[in-house]
Amino acid sequence: MKNIHLAHVTLPDFGMPTTEPSVSENAYLERLNKLRRIMQAQDLQAIIVYADREHTANLTYLCGYDPRFEEALLIITSEKIPALLVGNEGMGYAELCPIPVRRILYQPLSLMGQDRSKSQTLNEIFIAENITSDKKVGVAGWKYFIKEEFDTPETIFETPSYIVDILRQIVGYEKVINVNAIFMSPENGLRILNEAEQLAAFEFAACHTSNGIKNVLFNMRPGMTEYEAATLMRANGFPHGAHTMLSCGLRATYGLPSPSMNTLKVGERFTMAMCLWGALNARAGWLVRDETELPENIRDYVDKLAIPYFRAVARWYEHIGIGVTGGELYGIIHQEIGDPFFGVHLNPGHYIHLDEWVHSPIFKNSTITIKSGVALQVDVIPATGSDYHTINIEDGIAIADEALRHEIAQQFPEMWQRIQARRTFMQDVIGISLKPEVLPFSNIPAYLPPYLLSGGRVLVVLK
Fold it and tell me: How many CA atoms lie within 13 A of 315 on its CB side?
């Protein structure tokens, strides 16, 4: 790849959605059908899916319900309409499910201090759902484990113990297994491959997260508090997939803090991220207009950190596509910025869904291939641990073969127009060539200003 340099660039207005896509009833029912086929193949009599406010993705994927103040359980068997166990406040809210479910009140899922007198025990509910034999029962929450962590990872759970304990009393200890991999495996998890309408919902979210970051980038000013800067994201009530991150000064070193009353100051470190269901965008660097406002000992920041970083990300973008292995993408990043100085420790890219990080196929020597239908977070974070701080560009993409691209173009023409405009911008202005199957979802696609107070001056590739 040829030289990277700074250039003044006009960022186009790629537009915002005028309608909100949603996942259809038929799509949810087909997801359940797929799950039941897997259950039959694995000889599972039932799968119990647990969710709370922080870990809702697997349950929401199956029936569209997301717990609010409470927790929830979804019981899927081979024949019955799924049973949705909810607490006192969830009974009414569950009427909004986009597919038929049998609502069952299980009051221990409610907040403490509320009535517990009207529901059966969990043991009674499980038996009524025909969980009575010694066949295997699967439990899913939000994480599964591997041999490097436990000798028998299939019997280890992250879900509340009372659920697992009662199931073990009914069917036997070794018959209760962790089945999160059915949903989250980077090779064949159900939530890894997305329908056109799910991708459209993710792109809807990405428009809002990327515009939120764009608004901060072009409108924040020294003297603002972090709270004031964060209000520029214009959050509209769409559910968050992770907390809002924005911080400056030494707190920005850690990337994760929420905003505070701290004020933005020229010459300080800065980081920000906005995450909604299906999308996250982030930028990080320094609150300066040019190198003269950087600390004197890092005025080579662009040459030493920003340019090598952007070259690596540009190569990642140009290489990814259907059939590419995660190991190839890992290798590209570490060829460019594998030196310990850059501090790239996390996977350079991962799958995204309703949860910000589902899993990642991108690790050393990975043979997992990228498939049509995946949604990915372009997420390469240098943690230098030095005075240079970091630089960061996080945006979302999808991978779609010709048939899926045609489906998106036909069903979601506004989305398709935005995607094509972003591809053109990335290729013609930023200088990053994309394979046909790569669909950028961000309204700030590969747009990286290393000096954050000069938002119109960004890194581009000279071909």
Answer: 21
pLDDT of residue 1: 53
| Rounded alpha-carbon distances, angstroms, from residue 134 to 79, 140, 415 | 18, 19, 49
- Outline where 6-96 has alpha helix (H): 25-41, 57-63, 90-93
Show Cβ contacts of residue 346 under 8 Å, excluding neighbours closer than 6 positions: 379, 381
The answer to whether 307 touches 372, Cβ cutoff 8 Å, is: no
Cα–Cα distance list, 16 to 11, 68, 95 (Å): 15, 28, 30
Contacts of 187 (CB under 8 A, 6+ apart): 361, 368
Which tens digits make up the pLDDT trace of 265-281?
Answer: 999 999 999 999 999 99
Which residues on adjacent β-strands are paired with residue 138? 47, 177
Contact 125, 85 (CB under 8 A): yes
Q: Mark out the alpha helices in 272-325 (DSSP H runs).
A: 301, 307-319
Angle at 272 between CA 8 and CA 378, to 5 degrees: 75
CB 339 within 8 A of CB 165: no
Residues 216, 22, 158, 104: what is their CA dihedral angle, to the nearest 10 degrees?
130
Pairing relation of β-strands 72-77 and 83-86?
antiparallel
Look at the chain and count its residues. Answer: 463
Q: Give which of 257, 245, 311 is closest to 283, Cα–Cα.
A: 245
Tell me whether strands 269-276 and 438-440 are parallel, antiparallel or unpaired: unpaired
Closest CA to 345 of 361, 336, 334, 335: 334
For residue 336, is pLDDT > 80? yes
How confident is the model over 136-154, as pLDDT tens digits? 999 999 999 999 999 999 9
Q: Which helix (H) or strand (E) holds 252?
A: none
Task: Please tell me the predicted confidence (pLDDT) of residue 463.
Answer: 74
Q: Give pLDDT, residue 340.
A: 96
pLDDT of residue 406: 98
